[in-house]
Structure formats: C-alpha cells, structure tokens
Amino acid sequence: MLAWLPESDTRAVLAAPLTGHTESTHTRTEELEAELADIRTAGYSVAAGELEHGVHGVSAAIRAKQHSPIGVISIWGPQERIPDERFAELGALVAAAARQAVGRPGD
Q1: Which domain CATH number covers 32?
Q2: Global pTM value
C-alpha cells in the first residue's frame, strides 16, 4: 500500500528506521524507493522471504476512485507453491481482483 500513498506520506514512512525481518527485507531507503517504483509500474508487489523465510506472496492495493489505497488483496504460501516464476501470473490475478473490488475491471 505504501506505493500508492501520497508522496509526503511515503517520505514520512521512509524517514523512520526500516526494520528487517529477514536478510531479504529491504532496509535501505534507496532499495525500497526503487521497489515502490516497480510496484507502481507492475500494479502489484512481491515478497520472497522478506517477512518470513520460505514464505512468498504477491499483493495488490485496492484503490478508491481517487487512487488512494483502501485495502489489499494478497496470495501467500510456501515458496514451493509460489516460486518466483509464478509472481507475474499471480500478480496479474491480484491486480485484476483489486480493480474489480472497486468496480474498475479494465482500469
């Protein structure tokens, strides 16, 4: 959801110390800013062991008509069932579901 917040809100979050949950967690502001740009382009985010070892997921923000985030749709599971190779496929599914949740299926 951070990728879709107003820039001032994003900057406030990034100004605070970033806590790492695993060695895969982005804790440098520059890395996270680059990832946020990728999320905006793709329409979904991926997590490959960033929160917990061996757990992968894809998420898409549910955005109101003014594009502010109001919720999230995610698919999570063990790395064996959600390998990196499935991120694009599952990301497209959660992004479409997030758009449909607010009545914008083709947006």
Answers
A1: 3.30.450.40
A2: 0.84
What is the residue-averaged pLDDT of the chain?
A: 91
Domain that holds residue 70: 2-101
Q: Are 25 and 51 in contact (CB under 8 A)?
A: yes
Query: Looking at the domain assignment, is residue 19 inside a domain?
Result: yes
What total of structural domains would you count in the chain? Answer: 1
Q: pLDDT tens digits for 3-43?
A: 999 889 999 998 888 888 888 888 888 988 999 999 999 99
